[in-house]
Amino acid sequence: MADRSMAAVRKRVVVIGGGFAGMNAAIHMAKLPVDVTLVDRRNHHTFQPLLYQVALAVLSPAEIAQPIRSIMRDHRNIEVLMDEATGFDLAGQRVELKTGAQLEYDYLILATGSTHSYFGRDDWAALAPGLKTIEDAVEIRRRVLLAFELAERQMQEHGTHPPLNFVIVGGGPTGVELAGAISDIARLYMAKDFRHINPATAHVLILEGGDHILAAYPPDLQKKAVEQLQDLGVSVRTGARVTDIQPGYVMISDERLLSAVTLWAAGVQASPLGKALGLPVDRRGCVIVDRFLNPQEHPEIFVCGDLAHVEEDGHQVPGVAQPAMQMGTYAATRIGRLISGERGSDGTGLNEPFHYFDKGDMATIGRKAAIANIKWPFKGHLSGLFAWLTWLFVHIFFLIGFRNRIAVFRQWAWTYLTFSDGARLITGSQELTGWDEEYHAAQNATVGTPVNVTTKTS
After folding, report:
1. Which terminal CB of the chain, N or C, has fewer other CB atoms within 10 Å?
2. What total number of domains does the chain contain?
3. Which among 431, 454, 442 has a CA at the least distance from the CA of 161?
4. Is residue 257 in a domain?
């Protein structure tokens, strides 16, 4: 009876989302007197900063992802449920699941992240995939590798092929990473693999609607990034707002850019689940929360990661991995203090707001190329090889699971030193949307030169 009585008073915490925020929250509640249910529609946690390495065939999916159950197996108060949250009963403190089941909670941590935003043109999604999930990465890998295979086939059969133009819409970190990686794989890793085409003639173009790429970085690092991209053979166009995307080409006003593969890295929006709360959200669908990560009048709910609109010093905390991890840890710590009434060592525990400790930002550009805006443990701007090595160390260090760290480092080192095959597997459809449509239009072009990127509509 005593055991049942104790069990009855244990608080129930439901965590929705197995990303950086949700995983950190769950792990930090492993030793609390609470029962935790972690819900995610996928069975694995993905280390998103390395997704582009899967998309460009350097790493395989299993090297940057790990089953959530494996990570949580030793935490007896945490159960994992593969399901999808679809709605909420805030008054009854219940989460509604896609299967029809409901989960009751005393505390709710909502951390379902973000998805792609096509600014009202959702029809572009099938033509220009973005990069948020393992499935996205595998699809991008399929399209990029297939473009080279089809070019080889067309060259063998007809003596010519459409220009190998790769257009990336968006000049943020994801766009820059994809562009540099495509250039690397074309110039270095596939240089000797084909008999009829020269992969190095591929042309990679970044289209950025704003005045600068990597707008969140200081001007000197933006300049360094452009220089490193140019060294890799990547072209950058700023002030280039895409007006249409169709099979085989991209439009900027009346300018038509031939594109064997178009990729999207231009915008994100919060997970639709944020709006399902029925509470105030911003224009991107992020839930507006206070300094304790609670939405309006709901201290039992914590919103973390990309889904949270939390401001500090007049600016919104960015939706990237570092603050998401800190938010998840904060939410778990605060729940523990609320349950026990514990005060922090400074005596402010229950009234201590979330504070984002910004250690800096890094973006990789290509092999031995990166930029880093370091804010801790020292302040400084890095670029080139040293920034790339710093980026490499930090990302491997934060991989969940020792096995993954060893596997990633081994694969990276082998690929880097030997220019080996990596994970260059084409799965799924063997057709590439837009290839045949643009083939005849490009037959008379001089293959592989940047001048062929653009044609004018009449």
Report:
1. C
2. 2
3. 442
4. yes
